[in-house]
Write a structure and sequence with these properties.
The complex is a heterodimer of chains A (about 110) and B (about 120). Helices cover about 0% and strands about 55% of the residues of chain A. By secondary structure, chain A is mainly beta. Chain B is about 0% helix and about 50% strand. Chain B has strands at about 5, 10-15, 20-25, 30-40, 40-50, 55, 65, 75-80, 85-95, 105-110, 115. The radius of gyration of chain B is 14 Å and the shape is globular.
């Protein structure tokens, strides 16, 4: 079946850039998503990218997609302590209807 | 305020005692889903619904039931809970499938229900 892998943990200093990586196995993935989960809360959709795109930028967030290597990354510029959370990538062939999530990357931002 | 609400937020129960976790959204969304979150496994979809009276299985439906009698509500039913259903449960809703690129295509999650089955 489909598999989505993420590293478990990332630690950065406030003001640095953070890069969270994700790899997936399903070559039929059409939609790729990034979610943020703050402590005690549900997931918040941050951004998504279609498989026919290489890059998407949204304010401090940049998503890069390497479809050949099935690699997705989320770059957060000027990382703030409020960005500390767990970040999940997810892939789908059809959209929100059926998502396969990664295990999540815990981002810790220190002052 | 647009939101997805879940009740209860925390529940401790015993094996075999039927329970229902409610989910309600106030955005007139057609699409709703249930997920469970377990350490090291991310989120896995239990069931989803495309509209009233239209539901389908996700990846881990065993031991769960759902119903969609009204557009706003999508309860998750555990007829005979077992300890392996101890988990953090999330309900989500969306207007679209997230496949069109429209600004309205966004998915909202509830705050979660932490269930412990003894």
């Amino acid at each position: 079946g489909e598999d989505v892998e993420q590293s478990l943990f990332l630690s950065v200093r406030e003001g640095d850039s953070s890069v969270i990586n994700c790899t997936y196995t399903d070559s039929s993935s059409t939609y790729l998503y990034w979610y943020k989960q703050e402590p005690g809360a549900g997931l918040q959709l941050l951004t998504y990218i279609f498989s026919n795109m290489d890059m998407k930028q949204d304010q401090r967030l940049t998503v890069l997609l390497n479809k050949k290597d099935k690699h997705l990354s989320l770059r957060i510029a000027d990382t703030q302590t409020g960005d500390s959370a767990i970040y999940f990538c997810a892939e789908s062939e059809t959209g929100f209807q059926k998502l396969v999530f990664g295990t999540g990357t815990r981002l810790l931002v220190s002052p | 305020e647009a939101q997805v609400t879940q009740n209860p937020r925390y529940l401790i129960t015993v094996t075999g005692k039927k329970l229902t976790v409610t989910c309600s959204q106030n955005m007139n969304h057609e699409y709703m889903s249930w997920y469970r979150q377990d350490p090291g496994l991310g989120l896995r979809q239990i069931y989803y619904s495309m509209n009233v009276e239209v539901t389908d299985k996700g990846d881990v439906p065993e031991g769960y039931k759902v119903s969609r009698k009204e557009k706003r509500n999508f309860p998750l039913i555990l007829e005979s809970p077992s300890p392996n259903q101890t988990s953090l449960y999330f309900c989500a809703s969306s207007f679209g499938w997230g496949s069109s690129g429209r600004i309205t295509d966004t998915q909202y999650f509830g705050p979660g229900t932490r269930l412990t089955v003894l």
